[in-house]
TrEMBL record:
<feature type="binding site">
    <location>
        <position position="252"/>
    </location>
    <ligand>
        <name>Mg(2+)</name>
    </ligand>
</feature>
<comment type="similarity">
    <text>Belongs to the alkaline phosphatase family.</text>
</comment>
<dbReference type="Pfam" id="PF00245">
    <property type="entry name" value="Alk_phosphatase"/>
</dbReference>
<feature type="binding site">
    <location>
        <position position="299"/>
    </location>
    <ligand>
        <name>Zn(2+)</name>
    </ligand>
</feature>
<feature type="binding site">
    <location>
        <position position="300"/>
    </location>
    <ligand>
        <name>Zn(2+)</name>
    </ligand>
</feature>
<dbReference type="InterPro" id="IPR018299">
    <property type="entry name" value="Alkaline_phosphatase_AS"/>
</dbReference>
<feature type="binding site">
    <location>
        <position position="31"/>
    </location>
    <ligand>
        <name>Mg(2+)</name>
    </ligand>
</feature>
<keyword id="KW-0597">Phosphoprotein</keyword>
<feature type="binding site">
    <location>
        <position position="261"/>
    </location>
    <ligand>
        <name>Zn(2+)</name>
    </ligand>
</feature>
<feature type="binding site">
    <location>
        <position position="130"/>
    </location>
    <ligand>
        <name>Mg(2+)</name>
    </ligand>
</feature>
<feature type="binding site">
    <location>
        <position position="416"/>
    </location>
    <ligand>
        <name>Zn(2+)</name>
    </ligand>
</feature>
<feature type="binding site">
    <location>
        <position position="132"/>
    </location>
    <ligand>
        <name>Mg(2+)</name>
    </ligand>
</feature>
<keyword id="KW-0378">Hydrolase</keyword>
<feature type="signal peptide">
    <location>
        <begin position="1"/>
        <end position="20"/>
    </location>
</feature>
<dbReference type="InterPro" id="IPR017850">
    <property type="entry name" value="Alkaline_phosphatase_core_sf"/>
</dbReference>
<keyword id="KW-0460">Magnesium</keyword>
<protein>
    <submittedName>
        <fullName>Alkaline phosphatase</fullName>
    </submittedName>
</protein>
Amino acid sequence: MKKIVFSTLFAAMLPQLAEAAPKNIIYMIGDGMGPAYLSAYRYYQDNPATKAVESTIYDELWVGVASTYPDDDTIVTDSAAGATALATRIKSYNGAISVNHQHQPLTTMLEIAKAKGMHTGIVATSQINHATPASFMAHNEHRKNYNEIANDFVDSKVAGKFVADLMFGGGTKYFIRDDRNLVAEFKQAGFSYADNWQDLTKLSKLPALALLAPVGLPSSLDNSVANPLQTMTEKALQLLTPSEKGFVLMVEGSQIDWCGHANDIACAMAEMDDFAKAIRVAKAYVDSHPDTMLVITADHETGGLSLGSDGVYAWNTAVIKGVKHTAPQISRLLLESSANEVPKLWATLTGIQLTTAEFAELTLALQQAKKVLGAKLPADLEDLPKTQEQALDTLSAAVKKQINHYSKTGWTSGAHTAIDVPVLAWGKQRVDFAGFQDNTDIAAKLIGFIEAK
């Protein structure tokens, strides 16, 4: 696919980069965070007692937009191609983890920073070998090769050094395996390691690794730990601050995308809230360390979110705020309750008063799911047999149908869309990211700062 030409202005700025190059870069990616998500969060967090709609941290920092298409004719990118563009300044095919069409590695921003003697880090609420963080750390022909990608985190070096000095997220399933214990190898190489939130707070020096879940972290809406991304971001910045030559930190709000795929609006707003709090941490860091540049964007939009549906001129945030868990967790709790407990439990979990016909529809879906799943689900839903997974998905869809209906939330897809994504920035070079650009231009500007050191 032809590349849209956005780079004339950027080329004119190149001679100025060496003079203006920041010491530190914080690069935040809201996976799946299209512009409608920012609008939704604004209304979601608004104080209904005031006449004006309160602005958000997203509104405060929003300076531009970016196109996201991959290097093929699909127009719609996946997270791997999107992250490859954001990490390397070069487009590739859907599924690629920082490799080109010939499967040759594309040098990533973190690798360039490491070669300059900078410290580097990644933070994610997914497993750290998932598409976006992996594209900053590893090289593989396909994003689903999770074990190979995890191996690359140890095996791939820059001048004999690990690509990242700090890695926080999930993924013990891939890093502690029967065939290879990568955590042990990291520890042998001098990494401090945490596998729980209490130990995360005790990490005191680099290099540091924290794997806090078998795969991805629990959703913010279901997590017993409040604001997990904010917590990890705070700790990451604390550990990276002493770096004499500066640092590059990539922070991903991974599960905004997962909520979008699920068409789960309450889930999405909880993830947007945690991401917003992490952004506030990063902005405060820039304010106290003005030699730092903060850039925030998304790899793509997920779900085709719309605020207002069914021909109704309204979007009901009170309904969304009343939902206590993600749809799968609500489904689990309903499955584990007796029939006479369901009406009260539904009201407690969602706050939605269903009509008789709607409740009958939900009850039928629950009964059908119980026939397949039984009354008790395993703690980890990742490895459910296919028939059980489908039964849970069907019940979850029935739950979301009512939440979306009563909140008037619309979705056009369970996958990604090609809509342009927001670009937010804070720091002395903020203006460099204003206006319309391609995702590769964002990476080119940031890599330009690093190369100018």
